[in-house]
Structure formats: structure tokens, C-alpha cells
Amino acid sequence: MISLRAYFDSSGQVNDNYMTLAAFVASREMWVKFETDWNKILEDHSPKAAYVHMRELAHQQDGFDSSLGWTNENAFGLSNKCLVYMSHLDKTRFRMFYCSVDLEVWRKLRAETYQLPSPIDLCTETCAIGIFVSYIDNYPDVLNLQGDKLELFFDRGEPFKGSFEKRWRTETQKYKQTRVWNSWQLISRISSVDMKAVPGVQAADILAWAVNRDASISEGKGKFFAT
Questions:
Q1: Distance CA 160, CA 11 (A)
Q2: Distance (Å, whole) CA 227 – CA 126
Q3: Chain centroid, CA 161 distance in Å
Q4: How wide is the angle at C-alpha 65 spanned by C-alphas 63 and 69, nearest 5°?
Q5: pTM score of the predicted model
Q6: Helix %, strand %, coil % for the chain, to 5?
Q7: What is the CA radius of gyration of the chain?
Q8: What letter would DSSP give residue 67?
């Protein structure tokens, strides 16, 4: 029995220039070690950090307030340590996925009467397909097993959670009616968590923030892309 966990976070709002959804997927066992190592990085850093949240870190706000000793240098130093750690993980077992939407282009196309899904639904579909394909390619033996398969976790209040749940319910109902299997049946549950207590969501936050920032400042980037 193989059980995978996917942790999601997003960057950007529907009225911004870009919106990005990012996720990291690994086995439950790998996440246990990841959380131990991640928390040690935060504990050993100076100043000591309780969590990573890029919006707070970038502006030295809240948990990264300058009154607590945080500066641009040591704040981004922390995020760099986290990135270096993730860069050394086995990429065949620790997978990243993201989708970024150029909202200016999306709004322009909608104004020209193109029928497009919402940016949230676009990211949901792109990331879900990427994860499903990777899951099936790497773990084909789980398709006929009962029990845990793929668990999805989102930060509390994350709008993408509702989009995933809606699609999951729709596809599950189709399966019940037709008995024709679809990839959405790989999901065993979708839950909300407190990102400040969950390193997986913090990792996804770093990726989403970095991709969104890169798309925003790099001319010609950010239409749609996923990996």
C-alpha cells in the first residue's frame, strides 16, 4: 500500500497580474523526515524561526518583523537554506508541480468573449493532471488497491481547496453512476491545515511565491506553465 501526500499553496489574487498554485508531493514516510529536517533548519537559523511564510518574510512583517531581529539578509537567508535542502532531495520521490496564469491575458481573452475556466479552475486542472500522470507513472500498482492513495492538504482559507473539492465530488459522482474509473478516484481526502505548523505547505508557499515573482518581473513569462 502506497500513500502519497500533496501539500498546496498559492500566490497572487484574481485582481493581480499573475496567480500561481504550487504543490509538493511525496510519500507519507518521506514527509516525516522532511518535517524533522525542515524544523531543524528553522530552529538552527538566527534569528530562530517558527515557520516560513514568504509574504511575511519578504516584507519583515508579523513573525518576521524587524523588531524581532529580521532583515532582508537573514530572512532570505532562511528561505535559501530551505531551497538548498529541497534541491538535494530525490526528485523521483519528492515531486514539485505548479501552474501560473497571466491574469492580464486571461482578462483580455475573456473580454474578447473567449470561454475560459476561472484562473483557479485552470490551476486546479493543470496541477491535478500533472500529479495524476506522475502518480500513475510511478505507482501504477496502487490503482486496484483500496485505502489511502493520495491525500491533499491546503492552507486554511485557500480558495483552491474548494475548486479541488468541487471537481472531486463531480468526478466521484460520475464514477458511481458509470463505474468508469477516472484519475480523481486516486484521491482519498482533501483537508485544510495551518500552514504555520505544516512544513509541506510552507515549502509550497516558497515555490508559489518564487514562481509568481519570477513571472511578474520577467518579461514574456507567466502565460501558463507547469512541471
A1: 11
A2: 9
A3: 11
A4: 105
A5: 0.89
A6: 55, 20, 30
A7: 18
A8: G
Q: At what angle do helices 72-87 and 28-44 cross, to 10 degrees?
A: 150
Q: What is the DSSP letter of 50?
A: S
Cell numbers found for residue 143:
490503482
221 by DSSP, 3-state: which? coil
Q: Where are the domains of the chain?
A: 4-28+92-225
Three-class secondary structure of residue 15 per DSSP: coil
Report pLDDT digits (tens) over 14-53: 788 899 999 999 999 999 999 999 999 999 999 999 999 9
Cβ atoms 207, 96 nearer than 8 A: yes
- C-alpha–C-alpha distance, residues 59 and 64, integer Å: 8
Q: Name the grid cell of 160.
A: 483552491
Per-residue pLDDT tens, the chain, 227 aa: give them: 567 899 999 998 878 889 999 999 999 999 999 999 999 999 999 999 999 999 999 999 999 999 999 999 999 999 999 999 999 999 988 999 999 999 999 999 999 988 899 999 999 999 999 999 887 787 776 544 455 589 999 999 999 999 999 999 999 999 999 999 888 988 999 999 999 999 999 999 999 999 998 877 754 443 333 33
C-alpha cell at 86: 529541497
Q: Within 13 Å of residue 157, how many CA atoms lie on the same side as its CB?
A: 4
Answer CATH for 4-28+92-225 from 3.30.70, 3.30.420, 2.60.40, 3.40.50: 3.30.420
Interacting residues of 94 by C-beta distance below 8 A, sequence separation 6+: 24, 25, 26, 30, 34, 86
